[in-house]
Amino acid sequence: TTVEQNLNAAPADLKTGQFLSIVGTGDAFGNILASSIIARTQPQQNNFTQPAGGSFTPGGRPGNTGNESFPRGGNNGFQFVSGNRTAGTLEAINGNTLSLTNFQGEPVTVTVDAQTTVQLTLSRSITDLKTGESVTALARPDSNGNLGAFSIVVR
After folding, report:
1. Residue 56 in contact with residue 48, Cβ under 8 Å?
2. Concatenated DSSP letters for 121-132?
């Protein structure tokens, strides 16, 4: 079971090596102006299985027809670039410009501004949880119908 806590932060709190999931507005060159960023120390393990032959068709990215398929690559969360989203490892920070490497090994440029929101996702231990904390749990039923949590997020 993974236990994580989400904290509000600022672009100045980002550090190289973090995995970023970004939502924003893309331009004709593939650059993105970020509206929101979620930062974590590693790609999210979503524990969902993609059907054989499945793919993500983003459309939306300037220059794409919407018919292109980009492989997701298994259980590593966001692994695509489209006009509204990108994800990858933060390689460098230069002022308000972030340089990422996506899962295909391609460079992606992201710009942040005063309206960009940032959320840091920190790992925690299940023993750190306290009575009264607000949590969201993702669970699967076992053969008896009992739910077993595989992910807990502290809000």
Report:
1. no
2. EEEE-GGG--TT
